[in-house]
UniProtKB/TrEMBL annotation, chain A:
GO terms for biological process: protein K48-linked deubiquitination; proteolysis. Transmembrane segments: none annotated. It comes from the Eukaryota. GO terms for cellular component: nucleus. This is ubiquitinyl hydrolase 1. The lineage of its organism: Eukaryota, Fungi, Fungi incertae sedis, Zoopagomycota, Kickxellomycotina. Residues 66-276 form the OTU domain. Pfam families: Peptidase_C65. PANTHER family: UBIQUITIN THIOESTERASE OTUBAIN-LIKE, UBIQUITIN THIOLESTERASE PROTEIN OTUB. One of its GO terms (molecular function) is cysteine-type deubiquitinase activity. Its EC number is 3.4.19.12. It comes from Dimargaris cristalligena. Keywords: Hydrolase, Protease, Thiol protease, Ubl conjugation pathway.
UniProtKB/TrEMBL annotation, chain B:
Its EC number is 2.3.2.23. Residues 8-168 form the UBC core domain. The lineage of its organism: Eukaryota, Fungi, Fungi incertae sedis, Zoopagomycota, Kickxellomycotina. It catalyses: S-ubiquitinyl-[E1 ubiquitin-activating enzyme]-L-cysteine + [E2 ubiquitin-conjugating enzyme]-L-cysteine = [E1 ubiquitin-activating enzyme]-L-cysteine + S-ubiquitinyl-[E2 ubiquitin-conjugating enzyme]-L-cysteine. InterPro entries: Ub_conjugating_enzyme, UBC, UBQ-conjugating_AS, UBQ-conjugating_enzyme/RWD. GO terms for molecular function: ATP binding; ubiquitin conjugating enzyme activity. The active site is at C93. Keywords: ATP-binding, Nucleotide-binding, Transferase, Ubl conjugation pathway. It comes from the Eukaryota. Belongs to the ubiquitin-conjugating enzyme family. Pfam families: UQ_con (PF00179). This is E2 ubiquitin-conjugating enzyme.
Length: 281, 169
């Protein structure tokens, strides 16, 4: 906790509140794995014992989903969960994997076109492609080893964070390249470069819908986001849980043959979620 | 993010150093003080022409965090440097050396913050522009800001004095 003594008769200053929040967040996040093991959905239900509407939503989810994988809530959870889900969806399928590797390598063009020097991104890109390539080779001999290696890679800060940095740079480059299309969606921010520097490239800054749309479009990957928000309407009997396709319904369906990533969204946080029948989506 | 020096950071710094030795911008040299430690650099910056800093050679150290380039380095002049955007202890205060989200109101909205797509070269170029065009909106040295605003002749005289001192060293 903070080193200063606070006079209890006055309210805490903004700075004190901020420092306190920071220390709570740090204490919490530094003990959590960057990505956890797969856990059954029941583990999720336990968190919401007291909330009927959440429990009803989770109950509904168990019909279609079997497991979740928690990601550290450090502001990078979307990129980390997405990358891991993507690698997991392609590494055991030679055709998908080759395509994903090609997509990653070709994505460097987008960064170069907006003026990023190769020296600022090439190491991160290389970690991203090397990791997927090693997974592909391991998968050929032993799928179980590949699963373990995937988890280990995304738990290793240097590897995991390098992949996150590259995906952030790609998202930024894609937004800069198509700024005429995306600028109208930036609320209160008239400058795309400033948005990208402050809200996309910087580690630890959380993602909004525009980041999800840009990244999935840049990579041509299907993403489905399952919303668990405990909204009372969602608990009405039989009402399905909301699922949003990215970049949009049409492109999500068209890209599905190269692998689908499914994330669980709870307000402010993304984790991975696994369908019962991954191939039937 | 990382607690110990990362291989990524080291590799990146070695590349940036190599690139700077081949293609250094005019009036700038920079590199590690010792090849044993790529996280501590020294930079030499020539005072820009047509400014009171002209003719001076200014030395600075650049200290990189172990998670570079996720976070920016710190740059500190090691010679007398009287400038509105340089603290009295020599630390340079410009937007590109600050991570986004830090001090949101202190800089002009258009100024560029640190992000991993920046580089040492971009920092040094920004510092040269800063020397030529002080920004008294986000002052670090209040005295220097005041003299620069209220008595330009006196400001130029102090700076030229410092230039002579840097050359005597």
């Amino acid at each position: 906790m903070s080193s200063f003594q606070r006079d209890p008769s006055r309210s805490p200053t903004d700075l004190e509140i901020l420092e306190h929040q920071q220390s709570v967040v740090e204490a919490h996040t530094s003990t959590q794995l960057l990505v956890g093991p797969q856990e059954p959905l029941a583990a999720l239900a336990k968190e919401y014992r007291g909330s009927e509407s959440f429990r009803a939503q989770i109950e509904r989810l168990t019909q279609d989903y079997q497991a979740i994988r928690r990601c550290r809530g450090d502001g990078n959870c979307f990129y980390r969960a997405f990358a891991m889900g993507w690698y997991e969806a392609v590494h055991s399928d030679p055709r998908r994997c080759a395509q994903a590797l090609r997509t990653l390598e070709e994505s460097a063009d987008c960064l170069q076109q907006v003026g990023f020097e190769s020296l600022v991104f090439e190491d991160f890109l290389k970690t991203a492609t090397d990791t997927l390539h090693t997974l592909q080779c391991t998968s050929r001999d032993s799928p179980a080893d590949a699963e373990a290696l995937l988890e280990q890679s995304f738990q290793t800060p240097e590897v995991s964070n390098s992949i996150v940095v590259y995906l952030r740079m790609l998202t930024s480059a894609f937004l800069r390249q198509h700024q005429d299309d995306y600028l109208p969606f930036l609320e209160g921010e008239p400058d795309m470069v400033r948005f990208c520097t402050g809200q996309v490239e910087a580690m630890g800054v959380e993602s909004e819908e525009i980041h999800l749309i840009a990244l999935t479009r840049a990579l041509g990957v299907s993403l489905r986001v399952v919303y668990l928000d405990g909204s009372p309407r969602a608990s009405e009997s039989g009402r399905p849980v909301t699922i949003h396709p990215f970049p949009n319904a049409e492109e999500c369906a068209a890209n599905a043959s190269s692998g689908v990533v499914t994330l669980l969204y709870r307000p402010g946080h993304y984790d991975l979620i696994y369908p019962n029948h991954p191939t039937s989506q | 993010m990382y607690t110990k020096p990362s291989a990524t950071a080291l590799k990146r710094l070695m590349k940036e150093y190599k690139e700077l030795t081949v293609n250094a911008p005019d009036g700038i040299t920079a590199g590690p003080i010792s090849e044993d430690n790529f996280f501590e650099w020294e930079a030499l910056i020539m005072g820009p022409d047509d400014t009171p800093y002209e003719g001076g050679v200014f030395t600075a150290t650049i200290t990189f965090p172990h998670d570079y380039p996720l976070n920016p380095p710190e740059m500190r002049f090691t010679c007398p440097m009287f400038h509105p955007n340089v603290y009295e202890n020599g630390v340079v205060c410009i937007s590109i050396l600050h991570p986004p989200g830090d001090d949101p109101n202190m800089y002009e909205s258009s100024s560029e913050r640190w992000s991993p797509v920046q580089s040492v070269e971009k920092i040094l170029l920004s510092v040269v522009s800063m020397i030529a065009e002080p920004n008294d909106e986000s002052g670090a040295n209040i005295d220097a800001c005041k003299v620069w605003r209220d008595n330009r002749e006196e400001f130029n005289r102090i700076v030229r004095d410092n230039v002579r001192k840097t050359l005597e060293l």
